[in-house]
Write a structure and sequence with these properties.
Helix Hairpins, 232 residues, mainly alpha, single chain, extended
């Protein structure tokens, strides 16, 4: 095993350790008992991840000067590496609302994405996403447009019957979103006849809208797998 592979293996092991530590920290009894350990483990991990980030910048500079640095820093995994460590320094050196710190801790989950750095499957998936990014952008625009249309329509259909629930178009966006996503929590439902008819139509439309990006990504991923097998 080469030195670089050993270093990568150590980083991957540390990432898994961080994920396990975050899970254990969510248990109050365990957190209180091992509070000092969790703090030191977090500090040591951040220092190592920071060293790794700058080490990869140095390697990128050696391979292709500043072009290599830009390529790494703005790459998918370069951004993941940065996001994995940045919240810690923001928390330590910038005065922010304490509640915001709890949100920043969620970014620790991004460290698990670093495990896929050498994964050929993940690279193929990212390439597949890049291949249909324009289509996905259009699908996102179509989804937003449909949500706004649905929220507006259900507001005019249900406002008189349920003024406290569908009080405005903005308030109706929640119903439109869960309906188009075909989730249907059932916490907000139409009660008028035309409201129910419209909800039925929108639910069917939602199935199509959800299926479009799923189909695009699946087809692109399969194509990339096929191309990769051809190259071999």
């Amino acid at each position: 095993m080469s030195k670089l592979n050993r270093f990568d293996f150590f980083i991957y092991t540390l990432i898994i350790g961080n994920i396990i530590a975050m899970i254990l920290e969510s248990h109050v009894a365990i957190k209180l008992q091992f509070l000092a350990f969790f703090r030191y483990f977090e500090l040591i991990s951040i220092l190592i991840f920071s060293f790794e980030y700058f080490y990869r910048i140095v390697l990128s500079y050696r391979s292709n000067r500043w072009g290599g640095v830009r390529a790494y820093v703005f790459s998918f995994f370069g951004l993941i590496d940065l996001v994995s460590i940045l919240p810690f320094y923001i928390k330590e050196f910038v005065l922010l609302d304490g509640r915001f710190f709890r949100i920043l801790r969620l970014f620790r989950l991004t460290r698990v994405l670093k495990l896929g750095r050498e994964s050929k499957s993940l690279k193929l998936f990212i390439k597949a996403l890049s291949g249909v990014k324009n289509e996905l952008k259009f699908t996102l625009f179509l989804s937003i447009l449909t949500i706004l249309f649905s929220a507006s329509a259900i507001y005019f259909l249900e406002n008189k019957a349920q003024p406290e629930v569908f009080s405005s178009i903005t308030a109706s966006i929640w119903w439109a979103t869960v309906s188009l996503a075909t989730v249907g929590y059932g916490d907000v439902v139409p009660v008028t006849i035309w409201g129910k008819v419209f909800a039925s139509i929108i639910s069917l439309v939602g199935i199509g809208i959800v299926a479009i990006p799923t189909g695009l990504i699946s087809a692109s991923f399969v194509e990339e797998i096929h191309n990769a097998k051809k190259k071999k």
